[in-house]
Amino acid sequence: MHTAPFALFSRRPYTPTTRAAPLESARAASSVRRFAPVPTLVALFVLAAAPDLRAQAPQSFVTTTLTSYAALEPTAVDPAAVLRVADVSNAAEASAGAQGATTETSLAKPQTAAEKHPAKTTKPEEAKKRSKSAKNTTVSDYVERAEVQAYLRSVSEEKGIPYEWLEREVALARYSPLSEKYTTPKPKADKKRTPDKNFILYERNLVNAERIDRGIDFMERNLETLRRVEKDTGVSGYAVTAIIGVESIYGRNMGRFRVLDALMTLSFDYTRRANYYRSELSSFLDFCYRQDVAPVSVTGSFAGALGLGQFMPASLNAYGRDGDGDGKIDIVKNEADGIASVANFLLEHGWPRGKRPLYPVNATEAIFKATNSGGIHTNATVASLLAAGVTPVGALPLAPDEKAMLVNLPWIAKDNTRGVDYYIGTDAFSAILRYNRSYFYAAAVTLLAYELEEQSKGIMREPPAEASGQTAAAPSGGTVAKP
Ligand SMILES: [Ca+2]
């Protein structure tokens, strides 16, 4: 029997809103919403194109316009992002001056929780302060600075890139106030108000009808590539799709910051982690030089992550792959390259062929502590976890000596009941954790992958006619969990 994958997550006493809207109704809604948006579009255009009007418009008008537009076309615009852009645009325009500030004033889709929550957007007063304190960096300012010249000389030597090329390209960099702002840690006072960890809330933002629907579209149009890559690497095509879905909503949200500006700012106008960003910057310049890409043309997140899988440049250099065989690696515009690169990242970080990431178990906090659980590596085995008192929920098709880790996901339901779900994680889960060290992140990716499999009715499986001609190639992703 094929076990419904997301039944794994059904023990919590709540019904996730994400599953309330069936796929069909989501699709129906998406065809209906095309008929009405003209007045909203006009209002949105005014807001986007006329900063003065936008600044004077009542906040309720701005909110209503953006919210109704977002309802019509949910992924076209994120109200929170546009509100934030509206708030900071004056500051960005003032500080950028003649530079145009196209990145900051565009409808840049946010990349992190900090950007997604309107409550955390820049207040107008803050924006005014910013406009006074922002560095008045001109286009060519960076290459005139001695530390930048010294850095470029070392990159030139280390990577074998002509200094003239580096100087010419870096001369186009501009200071990016938002890159600095969004990478600056919040004051400690805020930490007191940090709410308890709640996987239910986290999951709701990442695993919902829209992301499942678009994920199935993504899989349908990339099915050949996904199957080929899964066959080559043994990494689940559902998991690769889920990571791309979580990271960039399948390419709709890759960030509109100029990566060059972001990395130059964080390397030379921001003292915290400057060495890290300088290293990423040199990877980025190296990649652009080798791939014959103009650095200034590449867009990504405020911190320099780019493409479908939001790779930092060093990861792109290390794990980027050419998925369509044209000799270039373009993880921004080419979905095959994005898929191949994410799969290769997971493979290189130990994804075991055909394995699922998570299996539900019963456990306790005492067992979690006694087994030294909590890291990102599989430091136990299935047998040792069972010996410590972990008991499977349903089938656990893993060998006793299989490397494993115990995973805890605390949650708080609407009625304030609290609990912790426990899972046995395999090396596949550990590989996802190398993408992002958070159990919540990796579990949300896993859940989205399971939903994609379930709701696409196992789209990754080869058609029976082809499959019958094949020998015992291990099925990956989909069919392994059968008892
Ligand atoms: Ca390619």
TrEMBL record:
Residues 94-106 have a biased composition (Low complexity). Residues 146-449 form the Transglycosylase SLT domain. Residues 114-128 have a biased composition (Basic and acidic residues). It comes from the Bacteria. InterPro entries: Lysozyme-like_dom_sf, MltB-like, SLT_2. Residues 94-138, 460-483 are annotated as: Disordered. This is Lytic murein transglycosylase. It comes from Sutterella massiliensis. The lineage of its organism: Bacteria, Pseudomonadati, Pseudomonadota, Betaproteobacteria, Burkholderiales.
